[in-house]
Amino acid sequence: MTELDPLFVERCIEALLFAAAEPLSDVDLAKRLPEGADIAAGIDALRVRYEGRGVELACVAGRWRFQTAADLSFLMTEEREEPRRLSKAAQETLAIVAYHQPVTRAEIEAVRGVQASRGTIDVLLELGLIRMRGRRRTPGRPVTFGTTDAFMEHYGLATLADLPGIAEMKAAGLLEMNLPPGFTVPDPLGLRAGEEEDPLDFDDGETPEFAQDFLGEPEKA
């Protein structure tokens, strides 16, 4: 087999990432590139080539994309009316899921100290920031929730280990705010490292019995 020109592979990856509507993984790239293409070398070469430029190559949730350099983000800023903002309850719930996943509704309520509104969970599910990960193998088989790749992309996180730790949150003054009772900030590096996800234990075509928990009732003020 003729060895592929590294520059050719690099240019192919560059073209694919430039034209892609969403970040691409190594597997996605391999499906498009000729057999034998050294994707890792091509990615490394592109990262070096774009270092310090207006556009940089970044890894988000295990996928690659081109994005505006952080120090030039002010050029892309515009004032506009946000069609939808997360309520304080939704922000607290999302933070609890992010730091304690996989987590059940009951555990979210225990941390916040108040009952979780159906509307709050619905909003986060609808926005794609959280997802149902499966059932916990405990009495009642409660459903667990975790964050999604969309959550990682929105907040620019490569892995959950990039979530701010206690020191960073204190430096930003966030831990001086009134946090929900029972809320703790675990070490991001210890977040379920290497732990397998709870399996989605549903039969094909079965309507999960907990579906009625997510009917979208409006959240009470």
Automatic annotation (TrEMBL):
Q: Name one Pfam family in it.
A: SMC_ScpB
Q: Where would one find the signal peptide in this protein?
A: none
Does S-adenosyl-L-methionine show up as a keyword for this record? no
Cell division listed as a keyword = yes
Which residue windows are transmembrane per the record? none
Q: Matching InterPro entries, A to Z?
A: ScpB_csome_segregation, WH-like_DNA-bd_sf, WH_DNA-bd_sf
Q: Where is the composition biased (Acidic residues)?
A: 195-207
Keywords (A to Z) from UniProt:
Cell cycle, Cell division, Chromosome partition, Cytoplasm
Gene3D superfamilies recorded: Winged helix-like DNA-binding domain superfamily/Winged helix DNA-binding domain
Highest taxon of source: Bacteria
* SUPFAM superfamilies reported in the protein's UniProt record: Winged helix' DNA-binding domain (SSF46785)
Q: Where is this region: Disordered?
A: 188-221
Supply the PANTHER family for this chain: SEGREGATION AND CONDENSATION PROTEIN B (PTHR34298)
NCBIfam families attached to this UniProt entry: SMC-Scp complex subunit ScpB (TIGR00281)
Kindly provide the name given to this protein in its UniProt entry.
Answer: SMC-Scp complex subunit ScpB
